[in-house]
Specification:
With 277 residues, this protein is of the alpha/beta class. It is 39% helix and 16% strand. The strands form two sheets. A seven-stranded mixed beta sheet has the order 1-8-9-7-4-5-6, sandwiched between helices. The N and C termini lie far apart (47 Å).
């Protein structure tokens, strides 16, 4: 079974749904899966989506995806953090088919009745389509490595996961409600950023706050100053301006953003760090 609803495209090439469309999708759902990036759950958590879900009287499950990129103890801590706030929460690594049996079981326990219609909602690059693919056990919902590139979800699509679960795949919600870094790196493909250096610098600063060794492990770079890190990446990869022969830090900045999306840069936020603010 497959049904489509229209979606809009942002200036940055990201396929998005309006809040009105999201409201309609939630109203047609029995359960909402709110997919978060486990590396930084709060910056990928949508307060507005939760309010819509609550207003519609629907059940919501927090899904911490990409848990293969963080220690299991941190995933458990984040699950406990959200459960203490009253949310049913599951941590998974959809790309590796880890935790999907638990998620499927949680959906069926959470649904008011079966079969249930489940919507899958989250920001760009949190892995919504990958979650659907993992639950179905075969590649049926399109996935893409970067926001806005070919294969990125363009419409609302309804898929039968099994006899008890029908699942709605939705485009990424915009505007992103996270901080400036999240809004930029998730709102635009790296190639379409006119000035990739500024968001890359902010991203590097954030990563270094949580993991001072991140760029040493990712690139063998010991520098701790963002522009120096970009310069060394450019030199390492042979990226230079043709006329001046200066390091092409713009391309290095795009590479850092791509590597962050790919999980090459080790970075995660601990719940305790949030609670201590």
């Amino acid at each position: 079974m497959r049904t489509t609803w229209g979606a809009k495209t942002s200036p940055g090439g990201i396929i998005l749904a309006s809040w009105g469309q999201i409201d309609r999708i939630v109203s047609r759902s029995d359960v909402v899966l709110h997919i978060l990036d486990a590396r930084d759950p709060l910056n990928t958590f949508s307060e507005k989506l939760v309010k819509i879900t609550e207003r519609r009287g629907k059940r919501i499950i927090i899904v911490l995806n990409k848990c293969d990129l963080i220690p299991r103890s941190i995933a458990v801590d984040w699950r406990n953090y959200f459960e203490e706030k009253g949310y049913s929460t599951v941590y998974i690594a959809a790309a590796r088919r880890m935790g999907t049996v638990k998620l499927r079981t949680t959906i069926k326990k959470t649904a008011p009745s079966l079969p249930a219609v489940v919507s899958v909602i989250g920001y760009p690059k949190v892995g919504k389509s990958t979650v659907i693919n993992a639950l179905k056990g075969r590649h049926s919902a399109s996935t893409s490595p970067y926001p806005g590139s070919p294969g990125y979800t363009k419409t609302f699509q309804l898929y039968r996961v099994d006899k008890n679960i029908l699942m709605i795949d939705t485009p990424g919600i915009l505007p992103v409600e996270g901080d400036l870094v999240e809004r930029i790196i998730r709102g635009y493909p790296p190639e379409k950023l006119e000035d990739p250096v500024n968001p890359a610098v902010l991203l590097i600063e954030r990563v270094l706050r949580h993991n001072p060794q991140a760029f040493l492990h990712a690139y063998g770079i010991e520098a701790q100053e963002p522009l120096k890190i970009l310069e060394e990446i450019a030199i390492m990869r042979g990226w230079f301006y043709k006329k001046t022969k200066e390091p092409l830090i713009e391309e290095a900045a795009r590479a850092v953003i791509r590597d962050f999306h790919d999980g090459r840069i080790v970075y995660y936020v601990k719940p305790v760090e949030v609670q201590e603010r």
